[in-house]
Every structure is written in structure tokens, then in C-alpha cells.
Known about the structure:
The complex is a heterodimer of chains A (193) and B (152). Chain A has 193 residues and is of the alpha+beta class. Chain A has helices at residues 2-25, 36-39, 55-65, 70-77, 99-111, 163-172, 175-181; strands at 49-54, 79-88, 115-122, 125-134, 137-147, 151-159.
Amino acid sequence: MRASIFFGAVLALLVFLVGAPAVRAVQPPDAGAIPFEDLDLFPRDKLSVEINLEGPVLRMVSEFTRSDDPDFAKVMAGLKAIHVQVFPVTDKAGVEPLRPKIDRTLRWLEDRGWHSVVRAREKGEETYIYLKEADGQVVGLTILSIEPGEEAALINIVGKLDPAQLGRIGRNLNIPQLQKAQPRSRHLPETRQ
Amino acid sequence: MNELLCDATQDLIELSLDGELTAEEEARLQAHLAACPPCACEMALALRIRRELRALPAAAHVVPFPQLSARRGSLRLVLAAAMLALAVTGTIVLEQVRIRPAKPAPPNIAQATAEARYALAYVGKVGRRAGLDLRDGLLRRRLPLATGTDEP
Lengths: 193, 152
């Protein structure tokens, strides 16, 4: 009897020691996420806006806004991450120095099964919108927007997405008003994980 | 009566739910919650979690412990299996706890809300600029670009 308890305890210890790294290894990366650090599109120390919101924070945001903005809260509840990088493009060279990295980023998306829904260039402005689907559902949205003379932005929204709902809410929000109300949102060097 | 700080309120919320606050402390907590939406949100969340935990169903059935005298071999197996199950469960739970980031403080939630709104506003702005009306589910249908733009 004592031998079997000892055997069981040793076995349990072994499982714990071996299992911990294994459990960590099977945590799958989110299909709709893009690796900002690997793509290294914009120089991080020159960003005018950086937003990194992960699942637990987004769930709290959803709870926080549920009573006064249920549509927004519903969108937040389905999301796993929001990442935004905005880079000022004000010098004469424009985005040309970034061109190789822009091309590499777009190639990265297309090589990994992201669907291009918009590739537009008009009056120097460029807009690229990509969607990632899994099991027939949109699980990621990536937007690369370039406005020469103003700014370039890379946005990645991860989670269960309804683009129509996102668009409806986004249309009702106004960036200048938000900046006025939350000036800190314009300077976000810290990373929220 | 001194005003509570949000950090102190977090501790008091737990104690309040456990019924361990004095009447005066409870009154101070309620006064703070009435004036601080982020902390009120924390309280509502804590209440909800507690309610949902209590609503969990009891075990469907209890497996009777094997007869000691008749099944010593089975008992050893049961003990070994139980320890194994405990180790696996403990490993997963510990990993989840380790992976999970710390809960954000209330002021950070307000900031995060502003940041999330900013991100969605940017999506709306880009959509408008590209001539897309996202209301009609255009993105979902993966249609080509609207007129007035040229492929890069």
C-alpha cells in the first residue's frame, strides 16, 4: 500500500515537471494576430500612438461600458486583442523609406492566408484591408493606412469580428474628439499586456 | 469620513463580499462605489463571478469508494489515478494562472476604453476614406474595391 502511494506521488511529480512546459507549448497563437515586433514596420521609438490591448483588459472594457454603450461592449467582449501603431509621415521623403517594409508586411499577410479585401491608392493615400478567417468566421482584421504628409497606421484587431458592426461603431466615433477627451491616448509608449 | 482610494477599494470589495467589513467600512465602501464607476464596475464583476460560481451544478453523481477488503488492487489503481489526475489538473491550473496577466486597475480600464474607441474610430476613418460603407457587410462578402480607386 505504502509502495503504491509512493509510486503515485513520484508519478505525479514527474507529470508536473514534464507537463508544465508541454501545456505552455500547446497554447496556440491567435490566428488573427500579426507579429508587430517581427514585422518591424515602423520605428517604435518614433510612434505617435501605440495601443496594445489584450483579452483580459478588453473583457474589463466590455464590462465597464456594458451599461452606457452596449454595442461597443458587445464588440469588445468578442475581441482577443487590439494593436495600433501610428507613425507620423511628415518629412519630404514620405513613406518611400518604408516601402520595403510595407511590401514585406503585405507579403507576410498574403503568404499566411489573409484575404485582401481592399488595396486602394488614391491621391497618394494608400489603404490595405485584410481579413483572416477560420472555420468560416472572421477572426482577424488588419489595416494598413498611409496618408503622406500626415501619418501611417497599422491596426490589428483579433477575435470574433463582425466587420459591419465594427464599421457602424467606428463611423460614430470621431478621432479628434477622442483625442481631445483623452489626450493620453495620443502618446502610449507603454505596452499593456 | 475619509474618502477611499481605488486601490484600497479593491481589498474592501473582497472583504465586503465575504461579509467581513464593519458597518462603518461598508458605508464608506458603498459611498465610494456610488461615486466611482470603475470601482462600481469591479464590484459588479466580483458579484457576478461569485453568483455564477454558486450557480454551478453539484457533481452529477458520487462514485462509491471501493470496498477496502475486496479490492485492494483496485484501490491502488484508484489512488495512483487520483494523484495523476491531481498532478495534471494542478499543472494546467498553475500554467493558466502564470500565463494570465494581472488584473488592470480601474483607472487603466478607463484609459483602455479610450484606446479601444480610438482604434475603432481609426477603422471607421479608414473605411470612410476607402469609400467603404461597412454597414452593408461589404467586407464580409470580400467584394473588390469600390470605384474611384486604382490598384497599387
